[in-house]
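Q: My collaborator sent me two sequences in one message, no labels, and asked for predicted structures for both. Can we handle them in order? The first one she listed is below.
A: Yes, handling them in the order given. First sequence, followed by its structure tokens:
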Amino acid sequence: MNHPPPRTLRTVTGSLDPEAVRGPVLPHEHLVLDLDRAGDGAAVLAPERHGAAVTGELDELRRRFGLSLVVELTCRGMGRDVTALARLSREAGVPVVAATGWYYEPFHTPEVDTADVEQLTAVLVREIEDGVGATGIRPGVLGEIGSHGDVPTPSETKVLRAAGRAALATGLPLATHAQLGRGGTAQLELLTGEGLSAGRICIGHQDLLDDPGVHRELAARGAYVAFDTVGKESYQSDRTRLRLLTALVEAGHADRALLSCDISRHGYLRAEGGQGYGHLFEEFLPRLRAAGADDDLVDLLTRRNPLRFLTGANVEEN
């Protein structure tokens, strides 16, 4: 059954009318996660250690820039903690959408090895309908569903197919992790092959792929194209990101682009000398405006596009 998209945003603190979101949205972030495989604790955002820094940044962005929603894409096997997300959301005064799914293969949880696509789909649908564990908190997005390389591995293929079927069954949108921007076309083929509309799919990390032709192809097929690692200069310069985004806009696909920072370790927090969640607003958007973007384009990129991705709704212009 192809379930229609939700009419309201499903946040960790309750339902939210998309029309009530009057400020910008960060559609790909992490507030709590644990990706530590090296044992050095670097790829971690622990609520007990880093929560105050996280909420401090979000509260400041809410007051300075009107930040109105964060989509938190920490899923199964990534250290997800929806109870902590609810607490951080309340403390910062910013609504947060939680996620479900599986990341790319090194972070797959044991059931991925033993279950088939149908069984994995059932796991996701149950979590979406009943809530995560005993919390009653229901995810509002599938993501970040991962693969690495130009073609997903068999395990990643299984996870992508299950997530696509769960999106069909529940109406939730689906955001992917395309490692270093690669493999997005293959992800889209797999997901649409399960019957999922491209307009309910966001292909992740495309700002790490210096290939405007791929971006145009994804957008022309109706998928959202995520420029979601803004400020991560060690992976890609913001100068290149700006060039790629401008090319996509000039090709007529401004309504398919999403912008975020993907803060994924404590060293990226402002309190620890990093660029922080606010880099998009403080550094990148001023450069976009200097390149010719007006208020309407900025509102489209930072508010209307993510809300349409999440709910299918065309919200009013600010």
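Q: And the one she listed second?
A: Here it is, processed independently of the first:
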Amino acid sequence: MKCLIIGAGGIGCYYGARLIEASHDVTFVARGEHLKAMQQQGLSVEHEALQFQAPVDALSMHELLAQRQCDDYDLIMLTLKSGATAHWLNEAKDWLLQGSAPILSLQNGVDNEPLIAGVVGEARTLGGLAVRIGGHIIAPGQIEARGPAQVVMGRWPQVDAEDPTLTALAKALNEAQIPTRTTLNIRYELWKKLLINNGVNPLSALTGLDTRSLTADPALGKTVYAMMQETAIAASADEVTLTAADVDEMFNLISQFDAIKTSMLVDREKGRPLELDDISGAVIRRCQQLGEAAPNTELVQRLLQLDIRPVQWQPLTA
């Protein structure tokens, strides 16, 4: 399989390294010092079950559009930040429409797949989510990742029967030691993941705490749960039903998972834009559409927008 990974950050590079280890051809699209390091020194990925160091095929987006064709690839894996999806689709539209490669979104939020389908059509749009993985660039060309790093994927927005092409793709990913399952209703799965993302990502960025610290704290754990409940309410605007059992399942999952820094916390520490509009914003907009309240999500988002940060108290001196 020939795979193109757009957005070669922590998660994209981890999955790409797994595919290379399984003898698939992978092209990474990155930028800046990270791209330069990958081109000159190769890619390094540190994971509890993978130690990867090798030269890789890495290009800028400009180089990709000029030097390659869409049909050079069997799969395009999109691991960009959600806020960059629309810009990338606009930049690559003509290139994408000259080929037929499917696009698998492995991004946060529930609004990426409609954007992709609006450009290449639903037949080429695969919804997906990366589950139980934390991955970050720790230095140019160097990735640190943790967790089982599972993938759930399905045709957008849902189908009535298993798809042979999707089944074959899942088989290839599983053989590359990327635990993968397919679903007939990917929109439901994306909303289930948003339960966790909205529950911990914004609050983690606000407080500077990892996921385990948040859920274990008596007050903050209640806030995480309440933000998950608000997410479940918002899902009905997309005709997705998330039950109390779904909320409990996702809260227990993130409570028992290894303590990790969320991607939003890392972005805030590094001064990068936050995925607020695609996580908490998605919940708030839909709750407003339904005439429902989302007070916890609204408060945390607003504090982040105001750049409220934890105070580092110093002891009084005489």
